[in-house]
User: What shape does this take?
Amino acid sequence: MKNILKRNLRVDKMRDIKLYDTVILKDGRLAAVVEILGNHESFIIDTGSSPEDWETDLITADQVLRIATNKEIEKNHLKSMKLLKEQGYA
Assistant: This one.
């Protein structure tokens, strides 16, 4: 019964994810949600901080830890801008 309740709570949290939200994946990466598939069962995401490591992936809801906070998004943005400058893109 506990597992069913946990699963249902997790499904409800996944439904909170909206298009273009930034989420934290269980592997620690931040990702932008660019497409929501099915009933929030999977997502197409963009990850990376610069052209050197940008990727588009298809993931399942189980790979998402949570929606990122504004502070986490800002920290990632600053890291990305620094990398872009170092690589001559900005």
